[in-house]
Structures are given as structure tokens and as C-alpha cells.
Structure prediction request, 302 residues.
Amino acid sequence: MLENYEMIRAELPWFYPLLAFVFGAVVGSFLNVCIYRIPKNVSVISPPSTCACGVRIPWYFNLPILSWFMLRGRAACCEQGFSFRYPMVELLTGLIFVACWLQFPPLLAVTGMFFAALLLVATFIDLDHMIIPDRCSIGGMCGGVILSFFIPGLHGLEGTGLGAHLESGVTASIGAIVGAGLVYWLAVLGEVILRKPAMGEGDVKFLGCIGAFCGWQGALFGLFGGAVIGCAVLLPIMLLGRIFGWKQTIIDEEAGTEAVVTFGSCVPFGPMLAVAGLLYFLGFNTYVDAYLSEALALFRAF
Ligand SMILES: [Zn+2]
Prediction:
């Protein structure tokens, strides 16, 4: 079987990446369900996909990416439009899965896909509702630590002995604690300076999850890299929003209130953490780790 795998890999180099893409698109379709249903506390498995009008969607109208284009964004049953975000999430998941496949050996690639799926769900739920569900953050943190015990390669450790497994698990635990701790203290500091909650409890747990998969260096990069990405993306958007008078509606589901504010003035931090965490996982780690160990050496020299 391994022979076949190597043979296909050599003869048809595009075959496995294509498979990873299709797998990603299918998973992306499931992630759309998670993004929609988890905040509503509805099971992600049953009932099967239904249209907003209540009609069950047949499988041939439920194909990842393709269906949206086949139907031109309108439901076949009632002609209601459905968001372009659905095929976008599927496409994005497919592309990230290909990146994981090309970057890592198979087992690590699959672990990376799992991590990416968590990040994607948390990102879009945070964009919609300004919350990160515990299932993604705490679940991901525990999942990351457990997976690390079994897959030392996740933290760049070689060897298959018990030592490597334990070291990997400890690395993940330290990452989770550092990640959650960092945001916690930054949130406290932000509240003192800004006199309003700067970061949510969800972000604390979420950076813990990134730390479990990426180690403390990844958690550190997630926070500071995320802040840089956030500024780079947000400043132009906020500026344009000011100029053109764009508004955004904030819905507080718990209080049942709606507020209209200037576009970009209320933005979740989770997506920035997620982008930085994914970049670190997919290759930035080489640079970040080198930079951090240099900085540490400098620190020690004093
Ligand atoms: Zn319908």
C-alpha cells in the first residue's frame, strides 16, 4: 500500500494535492454548518441541511463550491439568495488543506487540517457574533495537548521514544498556559488603560488553543502578529468607513439589543489571532523561532 502511495506520488504529483483540496472543500461545507449552528446550540449532525424556507436540500444542490455557482447564489426551492460566504469558506478550507499537505508529512498534515478547521470555525463565528465558543477554544486547547502527546512532530521533535512524546505534550501544555496567560494579562492591562474591556474571555481561551498547537512561540506570534495584521487590515477599512460613512450593526444576543456604529469600530480580535496562528503553523515558525531565540540570547547576555 505504501508502495502504491509512493508510486502515485511520483507519477501523478498533482493527485494528492487535488485530493486534499476536494477533502478540504467537503470539510469546509461541514464547517459552514458548524459556523451557523454552534452559536444557536443546535446539533451539527442532525437534522440534515435545510434551506431557510425549511425544504431539505438534496445532495446535488449541496456540493461544496460548485452548487453556489450552479444555482447562481439562489436556493432552488424558494429562490432566496444565500451568501457568497458559503463557497468562499469551502474554497478557503480547500486551499489551506492543500498548503498543509504540501508542507508536512501526511500525519502532521492531517493534524494541521484539524487545527485549521478549528481556526476557521472560530474566526467566522467571532465575526458573526463576537464570541468564540468554548468548543473551539477549550476543546481545541485540550485537543492540541492530547494530539501533541501522540505526535511529537507537531512541535518539531524527532524520535519516537517516550521522551519525545512527553516533551511534546509538555511543550503543548506550556504553549497553552503561556497563550492564555498572555491575553489574560493584556486584557487586564487594556482594561486599566482603555477603561473598557479590550479583549474577551473567548480570546484568552482561544490563544491557549493556538499555543497548544504551536507552542509558546506561536502563541506569542499569534498575539503580536495578530495585532500587526489587525492594524494593517483595519486602519484602511476604518478610514474608508469614516470617509464614506459606512455603518455596522452590533447585535447583542444576550441583551437583545442592536446598535449602529461606524464601520470597523467594533471588531473581534479572534480572526487576527487565527490568521497569525495559521501563518506560524504553515511556515512562519522558522523565522519567528530564530528571531525569538536570538532575542532570548541577547536577554541572557545582560
Ligand atoms: Zn428554500
Remarks:
- The mean pLDDT is 87.
- Residues 154-279 form one domain.
- The beta strands are 247-252, 257-262.
- The CA atoms of residues 161 and 244 lie 60 Å apart.
